[in-house]
## 1
Amino acid sequence: MWKIILFPVFLGLIVIPAYSSMAAEDYTTWPGKDGAVKTDIDLPVTPFLGYGLSISNPRSIEDALYNIWFNLPEKKSSQTPSDAPGAKGSVRLFVYPTVDDAQFHLRDTIYTSQINPKRIMNPPIGDVAFSYDASSYSTIDFTRMNVLVSIELIADTDTSKIFGKLGAAIDEIIRNAPTWKTGDPRPRLNITQEFFKTFPLSPR
Amino acid sequence: MNRIFLFFILIAAFSFGARISYGWDLPLNVEVYELSFNHDTSSTSSDGITVRSNGGALIQAPEFSGGGTTNNKFAYLKTTSNPTVKARFYTTESGITSLTIFVLPNGGDPTWYLSSEDVSFSSATSDLATYTSTGVSFPSMGTYYTDWGWRVFKINGVQQTPTISIDGTYFDYYVVHQTPVAPMQEPWVGVLEKSCTWANGETTVSGIASEIADNLYSSGFNYEHIGGRRQYGSASEFYLSYFLSDYGTGAYANCLDMAKAVVCFSNAVGCSLLVRTYGRFDGTGNPLDHPVNCIDPIGNISGPTNSPIGDYVNIIQNDCRSADDGFLYHAYAYNSDAGTVWDATLKYDTGSDPDHVGGSNPGCGDITYPTPNWTLPTNISESSYKTNLLDPYPSWFQNQPGSQNVTFYIAP
């Protein structure tokens, strides 16, 4: 299903000259603006197992409250699990105070990247999503409500499996999180000691 | 025997009388309580410039206070000469109403010769005294130090021979080339520390920016080669605190991050550089039309490559490499007056075979193995820079790439 949805996007890359004159996305009209703001987003261990993840530089940034960088394993590592064949890359989650902030930063992430991700219309994950699929690397960036998720992979095999499974798991975690209410502390991720124990810290 | 006894009695009585009369004794308990170097924030002609601590908090005079409990850095413009320093002293001695205090320079180039000043005490802490200096001028930007021995010449108007040492102060400080420029118009000391060390003794904007770009290229950041993503904030912001804390750790950065860094570190000492992009940036303009020549990206993850994006990080490809493996845009620091470029993200090969491909156009050609001449782009005209960076064949889109100047602010 995932590949079917992405296929037209990948086909679009074949007509590369077309994007050179493509107008910038007007993020103010993106869907999901009226979505709830999520907070206390628990990161359970189970959905992240099987990718050989490690955590680096968990830190808060004032307007992107958390920047959690997961390192996927080195390419062709003997520890590479079957779900991530020959892959390495990163998963990053940013929690913003508002949906609009998250979407602004999605737009900015795309337009300050040195590659050229394409918008996925009616994406299977997230309110708004962009992806890029080249012969040796793939990326997907999406927002769900006030959370921005970026996954980058270098892989010599099909990466849609990782995007589909891990992306969908993260999307579900966000949707199931409590809704932020006026007077609550700023929206945040909850990263438990169990999570830190399971996925070791490593330098970027 | 009686005479000897009487002599000691008189000596004791005299000593006791002296203590009663003056209320102080040696060693004299007086210390430098506070010193202000940037004491007039509306002027820089005779005092320091406004600087901030890492994180952006304003450093206010007195920079040295509480007898050294607080000891902040300070900085001067290169054009400042013979600055004044404001001082306050503290004593636990009783009976002192005034001291004449001067400074004996113990070291520093230039040597600060400070005036001798009468300092009044109406309490344990003195009134503020203004010391003028002579002999102080700065030949160039850089890091400087001064070492002062503070001595008392008069106590309550009574000359002391010899003069009495009361305290010593040592300061490292910075001198910037010109008035700092946005977004570092009030530079952070962590930035000054690096810029003034790297470009110590430089006297030209081009020389300063070149030293800064060269050191940033060797700073331990690695090129983010998977998606070429910026790591330190959106197009309009720069998370300088995180950049400084990640310095030397092997963290990822892209060209936009490094261009912002060159601008920050250069403008902090008075260069007027800006971030400039070439290609499709922020959703506008045409993308770069050509692949890059063989480059050596910042850091040690990506080795020499003419395909810097994706998994071809150490691989030279022939001239059939696609736009997937090249840059959509590239960012660098730019002097708009001179039209010159500094790029701390990559070195390019200025040898005879810059793309490391031969026999192409038309066709894919063959990979070659020339002896490279890696060159960091510094103080080079923008047109020459583009010529050196980009491989004229193939042309992917037959479009003229766009250029943009990017303004940004410092995020905490």
## 2
Amino acid sequence: MALRTNAAPYLRSKNSTLKIMLTLTIALCIVWILAIAYSFKMDAALKESIKILNDEALQYNETFKVAISNGLKEAKELITFKPMYGLRTILVVLVSLVTTAICDILNTILRYKKGGNTTLFATIKHDLVYNYSYVTALIFALTLPAYISYYVVIIGSIFATVVVKNLFGGFGKNIFNPAAMARILVGICFTSQFDVPSMIVTLSANASSIIDATTGATLTTAFNNTMHWLGTSYSNGTSTVFNSIFNGYSMLDILFGNYLGSMGETFTIAILVIGIVLSVLKVINWRTPVFYVSTVAITAFVIALILGLDNPFSFVLYHLSLGGLMFGAVFMLTDPVTGPTSSFGKILVAIFAGFMTMLIRIKGSYPEGVVYSIALANILSCAIDYVVVGKSNDKLVLKYASLAVLLILSCITNSAVAYKVNGGKTIYYVNGIDKVQYDILSSSLTLKENDTYKPIENYEVKTDKNHISGYEYAKDKLSFAPAYEIVDKNKEKVGMAYLVSSSGSIDISGYKSEVTFTLIVAISNDGTIYGVGNLTDLTYKYGSVNSKVVDYAQNAYLGKDNSNYLTVDAFTSASYSSSIIKQAIGYAFAEFEQGGK
Amino acid sequence: MGLFTSKKHKHLPGFKDLTKDAEIVNLANSVNKVYFPTLSPNGKPINYIVKENDYVKVGTLIGNRTDFEVPIYSSVSGTVLANETMYNPQIGRNIPYLTILSDNLFERDALLPIVSLQSSKEEIFNAIKKAGLIGMGGAGFPTYVKYQNTKGVDTLLINGVECEPFLTTDYVTMSTYPTLLLKGIELLLKASEAKEAIIVIKVHKEKVKEAIEKELPNYKNIRIVEVEDLYPMGWERALIKRVLNREYDRLPIEASCIVNNAQTVIALAKTLLTGKTLATKLITVSGDGINKNANVLCRIGTLTTDIVNALGGLVEGDVNLIPGGPMCSKAVNTTNFPILMQMDALTILKFKQRVASPCLRCGACTMHCPASLQPVELKIAYERKDIDRMEKLKIMSCVECGMCSYVCPSSIEVTDTIKKAKMIYKLKHK
């Protein structure tokens, strides 16, 4: 028995760093499991796609050969391809975990001094648990896509553990978030590794919407590279951009992570829920993610207002759900080691990071605005800790004012930059109409410069079908969708656009298929027909109908000679579709005559 | 709690059930020797007027403090022995003690003059001064000083919060002597000319609340306020902020109020109304390091060893013996020290080995600091011996409540580090 005189107090809370880190690890593992589930779902979709290819190869041997020569190169490879992304999602994380563990063991061996109280083995065991490199490994690996090469994972993990963490003195001493820095490194050095493999792109044409990859870039990269995270502009002739990026992805798909991207970053809603749980459990400080996300949301909203976007709320949602923003907010920016200690400092850094995220997204050339802004926030943290002195309830007015100023600065700067990037053009960012309609509208409306269109809400079909004379149309098959008013730069109406859809079967060189045919007909005030839509197939997707088809349809409607166009595209020669086009245009024209003027 | 300001308090496990309803162990009728320190808590000497072999009775004036006008009265009857040297937990080192060998007869000396409600303000004040009482909440600030200048005082706060874990003496005393408490408050109301007195207790202290409320209709201008079970709610600053929503710079009088500990008021009422000086003290002896948990009634100056032995001794293995609550007081390496008037507990806990891990910089200490300081930054400033930064971080506002160490997930001795920092800061700013 002895009376010990260790330091007061003698009661301690049951909370411990190990407990905090283990909770965080569990949270990350949940994200990991969700990513694995998505990858297996993707595998299944890809297998389905391969099966369809196989079946077709058997059934329509000749046609399939034509299809292969038209675009599906390396058909053999495609048919024998075995998608393993579910397994890869597991392996990429494991590789990262093993690499960081090996780095930690080597670090302990190099630093180990003989003659201490503990054996080398015990020290290694201690360091493996208490250096918390597994958290770093999980965070880093989850910011990578499943199809990344393993060597990229290994290089990133070594960089994170050795350079960013252990060289600074290990856990608690590092200045930068190791995972964020490693992600930046591999993002810069191995940019092409983040592109969607061509195999997935090709197969996705047949797969269900969860892998609707039409380009090699992920959603985030494409949004960044082609649009600088802004809306889409119709006036400069690139009207299809927004559509081609978000082709097939509804807002729900994006919120629930139903798209290709980094493994852990996509399932925004799940990460949000995990973030809330972690905040309630006091594992992370709620101030950081709340102020970071709010800053991005407010800034995006202001940008949307300044640029005159049609639907600012969905613009904000895109910004919050893409590019791993929620993942960065919950798991990376909240890393206490690399952030300020005071609540005020945490909030200041969070707003600053939100500011930088938006600036890098709009103006920077890399899509990873989140990790860059986290690195910048890390740099600022030390300075903030140095400046924030005195009591935490001192100078409250000054503190609130400085936060407000930073937030306003973020809105003003980003809006100005966005305006500049966009060249002062009005951006049309349409939401709320269905994907196919959007497709057609954006790709086929051949408008004059500075023209635009706006949907007429609650449009009712006015045409008295008996009134139309001279046109035969398939009464049962044609259906009317919303109509649109075309307005010029002076906001004056120059015409109407109508959406007509129909379905039926077509026969292309012996290849029969059910098709959905959707048509957009734009008619100017003087009665000139401007545009016509495209054809979607249940099995194959053809691109937009080219302008010659418009001419073909117009000629068909006007009763002109169409023999020049018969070879334009395989399906335009099909008798059914040409008559449908004729009927549809006629129908739209009748509608125009009735109520459009 | 604001966006940036700290929470300032936290619910701690109370461990109050260990002793709050346990039978009181009475050691007041038998004691071998009692000891009176020759130094005040602030290190100033105490002038003893009795000499070796003098015979004293209970209530005999044996000395005076030199820093304040606080008379010291004997707690036993018996013979004065030669000074003995032993440990003093308040000063933190061995000091000589005036030693009195008790004859266990506890014969009373002449009583002090009695006052009543009809007495004038000055009479009551003089009686308070003469009673020789110091605050029993732990700090030991002389009670009369608070009533020297009562200009502008409108409220009297009676602190029965007892927010330190394990401690139940306030609870027991208040529920046993509600009449004395209320009478004492009436006297103090008169002495301070305050309009109102508020008895502050924690929620769920039904026994205390019922006992007081039964008597309350007979008294004017006294009410009870219940506060949340949070630590450190009993700290004057926190209490005044919570109950009156007032803040002050140095002393509560700046916020027009006086704060007194409930036990002090009861002891004062006893002394003022009967003329008998305070000779006994109720001490909570609790924790998992001692075989029996109980409240012990003992003579002031009783040796801790005697109390520990009376409760079956310490348990096997290493323990922390803490003269006071487990949050604020520092463990000592001996049981060989006497019970002082301002002490209200002995907490004995099994020793737990704690290994500090690297600072996570999570800011939990900053989040919870009752004084709104940044303990983690102070710790870093101490490690760099950066006195200027300590100044900027307002180091002297720290009250060493122990909250930062309590909440630290990395088991870092934050409070202890800041105590050391305060020491080097004081050395540089002497």
